[in-house]
Design a protein that fits this description.
Two copies of one chain form a homodimer.
Chain A (H helix, E strand, L loop, with lengths): L29 E6 L3 E7 L5 E8 L6 H18 L9 E6 L2 E3 L4 E4 L12 H9 L3 E5 H12 L8 E6 L3 E7 L2 E2 L30 H5 L1 H13 L7 H6 L6 H9 L3 H25 L3 E5 L6 H14 L3 H6 L1 E4 L6 H18 L1
Parallel strand pairs in A: 1-4, 4-7, 8-11, 11-12
Antiparallel strand pairs in A: 1-2, 2-3, 5-6, 8-9, 9-10
Helix pairs in contact in A: 3-11, 5-8, 7-8, 8-9
Chain lengths: 351, 351
């Protein structure tokens, strides 16, 4: 456990019985943290919600969660000092992380593959005791959805669903302009929606999850399976010489150069992405589907065909209502969403 | 089109600038209507939200939608007269119906199989012009979800998803204690969530929809396919003598008597129902899943095994949060939900 020095922050005046218009602006600067598998991003937002400082440093997950958390805490202290702020002036700290997050308790319950020892880690309590600041923990894709809604492509939209297309597949849901977290913070696990019940088994216990069919890992695994079946491809050498490793960029390049195997693999992923979009449209009737993540750039070969399918198949009523668009904030979506969540929670507490 | 005699209802006082506590009770009696494929139910609820009169009569969908609507309107007039009410005293009329409903415009956009000519029918405008009462149109499963939330098993629950298990599969979603309708009223089409992408093609244009694998129609179709393959079963005679018709009760009875084919068919449906539950749990992290409809009674052979699977597979965080329970209001869930929706909308208008 990290060494704790507790700074009990004074709470803002609650404004009870005070005329609304005369009430002091309850907004405060907030800290946002996004813990990824390889990188951590921390950021300071001012009372107006503007990003005023940002740091990026390696996660080094192999060092164990206590080391990771200690380095984050030290970085946050530095970020505050560089901006002449005391922890007591900060309204909230919000941490976005992968894995199963219990937002109500502020705990990382089940680890993600990239943070394997993060099991029942009481992140919120650890930061609260260290800085004396109310701390919240969010699933990273949920944070990205809120980020795009408040600062990105989803501004002004009532109902929005975000899908992150990367090594894995994450999801976040905005209902009526608010982040929807479900009973405990576990809502939006769209990557673990079964779309092919007799498909490959997933680490989550489920079969045929969207993530097992569309993610970067799935595309790589599927390519290697085909190559091991002896199918002809310009990628054969990669498997022979490259320790059985073929990357998504390799596969995409091969497909664009006319490699049949690579084209089939990408077409299959695009088909399943289309199924995912259709399900989201039929279930949520959203105004907007936002796709982000490392593979969001693959418009011609992955997202484009999936999107075309999704706008043709679902109920006409729902298909007519939806636009499917690329995210705007790139890998900063998480800190923007974390900051927005912290601001909201702080306002709710001081109202 | 129905002959229209317009009674322009006086709106309730808006209470602008009036002290909340002194304001006249804005609640009014409401009319609720549920249009099913074979039966129509109409009901009058008093200002306190209590059911005080109810009628049931056959839909006779084959007569065409204009005839159906005319008979509903006449019944509503009778219901009001029997209770000494003028239309002007009614706060809202809410109609629950199958098919693709645009709640925003109050239009049945796409017909359900049972009401084949209900295409772009402006139900709300027709009733508004006839009775002078604000009229709303809802998907029937959404209405059932709201009914169970306000009057049934879901009282006091924040996040709830309802699944109707009948000839088809419908869905309704309660988020934060409110009915979630999406951009236009099309949210909650859980029966048209693909769970087996290479499964049978559905009339909706999609493949492997939950409805194509779990509904009463799916169970019957699947049984007949097996029988036509020449598999041994006590049901063989049904197909030979009964014009190729095997009903769900026949199949269930055969399965309970040890018929292998019937048991396999039911086990398959239960497996897919389990997949549907898992998806709902992973997507919504709900507190409660409510199942209703004609097949909700099949606890031992359909819902039980599906439920067991659903509580074992999903993310532990989400599985821990959920209870899966049978609906309480039977075939009255729709009118209860329609009444609750009308009351809410009336209160919102007069606030």
């Amino acid at each position: 456990m990290i060494s704790s020095f507790s700074l009990l922050a004074g709470r803002g005046t609650r404004g009870k019985g005070v005329d609304n218009k005369k009430m002091k602006n309850p907004n405060r600067p907030v800290i946002a943290i996004d813990i990824g598998g390889t990188k951590i991003m921390t950021a300071l937002f001012d009372a107006a919600g503007k990003l005023i400082g940002r740091d990026v440093f390696p996660t080094l997950a192999a060092n164990g969660f206590e080391d990771v958390i200690e380095r984050i805490a030290q970085n946050v202290q530095g970020l505050l000092q560089r901006n002449s702020l005391e922890p007591a002036q900060v309204g909230a700290i919000t941490i976005a992380a992968a894995g199963g997050i219990d937002t109500g308790r502020g705990v990382v319950v089940t680890p993600s593959p990239h943070l394997p020892d993060w099991k029942e880690v009481p992140l919120a309590a650890m930061f609260k005791s260290r800085f004396g600041v109310d701390t919240y923990v969010l699933n990273d894709a949920s944070a990205a959805a809120l980020g795009e809604h408040r600062y990105g492509i989803g501004r002004g939209v009532k109902h929005l669903v975000l899908l992150t297309l990367g090594t894995g597949i994450g999801g976040g849901i905005i209902i009526d302009g608010e982040l929807y977290l479900g009973a405990a913070g576990g809502a939006g696990e769209l990557g673990h929606m079964t779309i092919e019940a007799h498909g490959p088994r997933c680490g989550c216990g489920n079969t045929g999850c969207l993530e097992m069919l569309v993610s970067g890992s799935a595309i790589e695994r599927n390519t290697i399976e085909h190559l091991h079946n002896g199918e002809a491809s310009t990628l054969v050498d990669k498997v022979k010489t490259g320790n059985n490793i073929v990357s998504v960029p390799d596969i995409v390049a091969a497909a664009r150069s006319g490699d049949k195997l690579a084209q089939d693999v990408m077409a299959r992923a695009a088909f399943y992405l289309g199924v995912g979009f259709v399900n989201i449209i039929n279930i949520f009737n959203p105004e907007l589907i936002v796709y982000g993540g490392g593979m969001a750039e693959l418009g011609d070969i992955l997202v484009g065909p999936g999107k075309k399918m999704a706008l043709e198949i679902p109920f006409s009523l729902n298909a007519r209502a939806v636009r499917i668009v690329q995210a705007q904030l790139g890998n900063e979506a998480g800190i923007y969403g974390a900051a927005a969540f912290g601001r909201d929670m702080h306002l709710r507490r001081t109202r």
